[in-house]
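User: Run a structure prediction on this.
Assistant: Running it now.
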Amino acid sequence: MTWRRWDEAWHDALYGPAGFYRHAAPADHFATSAQGLGPAGDLFAEALARLAERHGTGRVVEVAAGRGELLSALARHAPNLELLGVEVVDPPAGLPARIDWLRSPGGSGLPDGLVGLTGTLLIAHEWLDVVPCPVVAREAPDLPWYHLEVDAAGRERPGAPVQGADLDWLTVHVPDHLGRAEVGLPRDTAYDDLVSRVGEGLVLAIDYGHTRDSRPPEGTFSAYRDGTQVPPVPDGTCDLTAHVAVDTLQADDVRTQREVLHDLLGPATLPPHALSRTEPTAYLRQLARANALATLTSNSGLGGFWWAMSHRGSADLG
């Protein structure tokens, strides 16, 4: 029986030769703002196109691009934008010809060629939550943290004590009452690396997460398969994910998706019912748009996602 630290097993389960993201399309297992939501996904692309225009960026690069769903929607909404996807697989069949593609090594790794970007909106949509990080626990607030180890069946056991930079991170960013947590240091480092790839433009990481005051006492590490939450097992059959500690990222601006989309698109206002009699097609179009925006900005759902933004060079967060 082989026992490994969770972060090591997590990485191989997602990005190893038989890893989940090597063979599974994310949209087959879960829906996000960028994929699997029909009109809401198109509206999400429209919002990002407006963000790119607002900051004068002529290129959009998406890290963790899935099978190109968001970039394909952007190709429809913003024909003048240059588009580039970064993912651990080859470009999918049927991808619009104008979308360029780079293979990524997986995890926190980014392609060597993804450097010196200018005039670019660099988006990492639900990427940081699948950057593996140590999963740790302790028996009581006054006892030491230890790494959790896992075997091939998903069984856990206590491992080595947490030391060094990981322990420093926990001491600063995790409240005393928590008994289990994920060490967000690898995500902080990954975000810094992402920002460093842009010389001029805007860097945007979108993810579900929490801040220090709302960190769940038993951690957030979990797994999903076919749209259902399942026990985490590092066998490559399920997505392994954990919330992002968004307040530890070195970002210039951190807001909820609800706040940003209302800024970019306005409120989710239903059309007047009288319009259904005079212009039924326009009424249905406006109703669909309002419903899509409500889906994307729901306080209890996608609207609670976090947008961490950093401007580079002359870009202005305005």
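The chain has a mean pLDDT of 91.
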